[in-house]
Amino acid sequence: MIRVIILSKFSKEWESGRSGVKAVLRPQTPLRSRLEFAIRRIEGQSQRIEATLNRLKERDRSLFSKVVDAYSKHDTQRANAFANELAEIRKTATFMINAKLALERVVLRLRTVTEIGNAAVTIAPAVKVLQSVRTGIAGILPGAEQELGAVGNLLNEIIIEAGQTTGMGFD
Fold first, then answer.
1. Residue 97 burial (CB < 10 Å; 0-12/13-18/19+)?
2. Model pTM?
3. Cβ 45 vs Cβ 103: under 8 Å
């Protein structure tokens, strides 16, 4: 019975945020909305990094051609200066690529958390139905009642593990 209350609370927080006195005192958007907002903002920064990478690639091509021209004219001093600048740009580009990959990994993890939350919210009503069928069938088929109880416990454990995985503890 306690698990049904926990599942109901998780569903409410996932879909609609807080309820009751806490909602009046400290209004808060639903967890799902906050995760989606964070994902959109991270993707925006990733796009900014991509635009910067494109500019760095253009600068890389330009400097590389200047290095080649300077070497072909036997102007080693100028070629070395361009080559040093090219090396710095390539270091910066490598850093930016790694940063973009890290942001993509964060987005992937946040999407996974969102999917796990969606699964938990979808499973919660099924657990309620199982419990009502279980109580209704208890007198008629005791074996089925026990099996439905085991399935209900399994689904409850899945939802609790999903809550622990997403970092959302249950009170």
1. middle
2. 0.66
3. yes
Compute the distance between CA of residue 158 and CA of residue 141 in angstroms, rounded to an integer.
26
- Say if residues 123 and 134 touch (Cβ distance below 8 Å): no
| 4 touches 128 (CB < 8 A) | yes
Q: Could you write out the DSSP letters of every residue in 68-116?
A: HHHHHTT-HHHHHHHHHHHHHHHHHHHHHHHHHHHHHHHHHHHHHHHHH
Task: Express each pLDDT in 49-103 by its tens digit.
Answer: 999 999 999 999 999 999 999 999 999 999 999 999 999 999 999 999 999 999 9
For residues 158 and 146, what is the distance between their CA atoms, to the nearest angstrom? 19
